[in-house]
Design goal:
The protein is an alpha/beta fold. The protein has 2 domains: 140 residues, Rossmann fold (3-Layer(aba) Sandwich), CATH 3.40.50; 123 residues, Riboflavin kinase-like (Elongation Factor Tu (Ef-tu), domain 3, Beta Barrel), CATH 2.40.30. It is 29% helix and 33% strand. The protein has 8 helices and 15 strands. A hairpin with a 5-residue loop joins strand 5 and strand 6. The relative contact order is 0.13.
Length: 292
Amino acid sequence: MKKKIALCLGYFDSVHMGHRELIHRCREYALAHKMLCAVYTFCEDKKGLFDSLYSFEDRRNLLREAGAELIMSDIFNDDIMNLSGKDFLDRLTSRSNICAFFCGYDYSFGKDAKCGANFLAEYAAKKKIYCSVMPCFEFNGERVSTSKIKELLKNGDVMTANELLAKPYFIRGKVVHGRGVGRTFGIPTANIEYKNDFLPREGVYKAQATIVDHLGNAIEDKKYAAVVNIGSKPTFDEGSVTIEALLIDFKGDLYDKYVKLEFGGYLRPIYKFESGEKLGEQIQKDIREALC
């Protein structure tokens, strides 16, 4: 017999504290009823309708950390998008032994997102499946949402965004070769290849860096204090936006390795300095602040 499943429904685009509360409720119910706590989401958005803060690999890791024992996923394509609400739920229940549904009050699904939490509850009642709809989740009197978190990050308010995320906002990417300008004045940096469309406000940040694999799993326990530059390099007349990280006290070669940068705070805007030496002096100040 298939294992009984308590299933959380949603896109979980940032796995913020509201998402985590929903998963916590699902997990508590699952433990009490000897079920698996599972999450259903989309692993790829072929239609470009979702504006996620993180990649699927990162969301999957965060969902597991939040308590999900099983991640169920589909590619969001025309076939999925054009399913009626009932057909979508029938598809889920035919594939797994779902004995409980959990969702947020604003969950929507089915063709043109016409179905919501009330439809889910009615469907579940007919199938004799337990259904729990979580009301709006607020923090300090304000609704928690990924759009709010993005707004905070675009304003450089990393600390408040981290509160709503319940853990530090992060960027993960492969270290690739850059121009190596930093080495000319004694401060080599790692150029991070990042494929997500969203970036926080341009500027200089303090962060914690971890060496990870291509799926985001840590391959060593050590974390390095870091200074991260997101944006252009006006001192060197380079206008393209890049992500450069200086891992303080790191010794070794980072090329072709993956680095996860957990942001701790916004330090300053990007300035054009008179010379590379003047920029180097400022970076030394940034390093001291990042270590505080």
